[in-house]
Amino acid sequence: MKFSLTAREKSELFGEGVVTVILLLLLNMSIFMIVNQEISNNPGLQNGIFQIKMSLFLGPTDLQIWSWGGLFTLMMIIADCGIVYWRLMRRYRQMQLRHVISELHYIASGHFDHRIPFKLSGQMQRVVESVNSLVDSTINAMEEERRIERSKDELVTNVSHDIRTPLTSIIGYLGLIENKQYNNDEELLQYTHTAFLKANQMKSLVDDLFEYTKVRQAGVTLNIVPLDIGAMLEQIAASYELEANKKGMAIHVEVPAESLVIEADGEKLARVFNNLVSNALKYGAGGKNIYLKAMLVSEKELKVTIANDGEPIPQKSLEQVFDRFYRAESSRSRETGGSGLGLAIAQGIVERHHGYIYVTSDAELTEFIMHFPVKHADSLVR
């Protein structure tokens, strides 16, 4: 929208112009009278002006400038026009600034969805754009703060709920033992064993929560070393081979013959790969194969895929699987002891390595795909 003045402001501007012209005319007349009086009272000055007049011609003709007053008047008109223009433009910019300040007060009063709607010229337009950008960034910061606040509340709620469940069981069974409400030693051992399992479940949740908060902190450093990804995948496959055989599944590793060395934190990446393989064993119902693949996408980027041919993840859950405490099938996850933080931790670790992770799932394969830079770019990490 083009900027326009109100009727009152136009009247002010017109009045400013009229007053300026009147003052300049009075000033010009005063100067003319003073100069004219000085010339009349000074014969030497008159003779000098006469000599100047005789030497000035307009073109090839003999037409002379016959009066110094004409030249003075022309110069004053040019100077007056410049002064009037400068005064009016100065007042006009003040009015523009007044409109900008008025819009700012309106926004500051709580109308955060409002932006300065008009367009100005020159530097004032840059001011308007800067103000609108500042308001946008402020609103985004406020929304982000609210989102973080909601996220913290959800975190506390979810942690409280997931800890309370095993803690209630532990207190219940220990209460039975404390009150000697068991019939024999076998029943006593059963109570203590159940309490022990619930305590381990609670410890696992606390450990995952600690790891999640740690990988999300920007100040936490990684232990970056040269790492052979192919050898790491082979080692992980070997460590899960027995468990996979018990579930009737086979683990396949597909890596190039040459070494795939990247700069990374071996302990952190091992946690990511272990988590994804463990999930494939736990939740890949009906699957027979788990695939661990690694390949160079380019000289600067490595791709790692961990896939299984088990039951696919529902399409509606694909965009949420990396959300903390999200479970595509909550009952199944609780039975297997999942905290709902594993994939969120994996995503955090991959991002700390300046990489990214995503998932695809269909009737044939569920694939967790990770991309890592070959050279770690964070100069602050040692």
UniProtKB/TrEMBL annotation:
Q: List all membrane-crossing ranges.
A: 12-35, 65-88
A Gene Ontology cellular component where this protein is annotated is:
plasma membrane
What is the organism of origin for this protein?
Ligilactobacillus murinus
> Could you identify this protein by its name?
histidine kinase
Q: What class of enzyme is it?
A: transferase
Q: Name one GO molecular function term.
A: ATP binding
Lineage, opening ranks: Bacteria, Bacillati, Bacillota, Bacilli, Lactobacillales
Give the Pfam families listed for this entry.
Answer: HATPase_c, HisKA
Where the record annotates domain HAMP, the positions are: 91-143
- PROSITE patterns tied to this protein: HAMP (PS50885), HIS_KIN (PS50109)
Catalytic activity line of the entry: ATP + protein L-histidine = ADP + protein N-phospho-L-histidine
Q: Which InterPro entries match?
A: HAMP_dom (IPR003660), HATPase_C_sf (IPR036890), HATPase_dom (IPR003594), His_kinase_dom (IPR005467), HisK_dim/P_dom (IPR003661), HisK_dim/P_sf (IPR036097), HssS/ArlS-like (IPR050398), Sig_transdc_His_kin-like_C (IPR004358)
Q: Does the keyword RNA-binding apply?
A: no
Q: Where in the cell is it found?
A: Cell membrane
**Which UniProt keywords are present, listed alphabetically?**
ATP-binding, Cell membrane, Kinase, Membrane, Nucleotide-binding, Phosphoprotein, Transferase, Transmembrane, Transmembrane helix, Two-component regulatory system
Domain Histidine kinase per the UniProt entry, residue ranges: 158-376
Enzyme Commission designation: 2.7.13.3
Membrane topology, as annotated: Multi-pass membrane protein
